Amino acid sequence: MRSLGRCVICTLFLLTVSGCATGPFPLAGDETNCGPEAGSADWWSQQAMLPPGVRQKCYKGKMWPVQPRPTVPRQQFTHTYHSAHYWPLPYVCQERDYVRNIVQTQMTNGWQQETTLYGRHFGDDQVLNVPGKLHLIDILEVTPSQYRTIYVQSSYHPEIDSSRVSSVEQVVMELTGGTEHIPIVLRKGRDYSRPASEVKVINDLYNSSVPTPRLGGSAGGGGGGASASGAAPSATGP
Fold first, then answer.
1. pTM across the whole model
2. CB 155 within 8 A of CB 161
3. Torsion on CA atoms 34, 37, 39, 43, rounded to nearest 10
4. Cα distance between residue 130 and residue 139, in whole Å
5. Ramachandran area for residue 196 (φ above 0: left; ψ -120 to 50: alpha; else beta)
């Protein structure tokens, strides 16, 4: 009798949770759709996708808890134990991937900044000047292959941009002998550095404004010398 009562209770529980006359549980978060049969491999696969933690519910017009939480059905006991036993896996892996993506984005932007030929690298005729050629040589020799893309700062003038790209293509052809194909891409960006000539002018102005050093305290030194020699001023009477 006790076993029969347990079976009846289990059957009623399955029907109550599933809402389906045939017995299978619904899909996660969907109480109206009858999913795979309870206990089957597909059913366990669906249950394994449920997130851990408490569920947010509305009680007397208030959400409990206040912070956003999942509203799908609760995890099975075995899955709850699994989540607690192996915590913080696999969520720590997702957080690490998020941080790695941020670092990778910063690295990509940094290499893009370093492989850009700015307006100061071109002369008035929009041909690479000496600093531009030296910077281009560094890009070809130092930059890793996965970041070896030559960016040219856009001037927002098609004629100037075309001249700059043509000049870079010609210099690359001369340096590589036509054996390497390196992408050359226009880039809209700002130059946050300064030309060497401008830095030299600033340093020269700073050095010229430094006051001439002077040795101070010469008068006090003389007085001290007189005291040390033992000489005393003559006393004269009235």
1. 0.56
2. yes
3. -50
4. 14
5. alpha
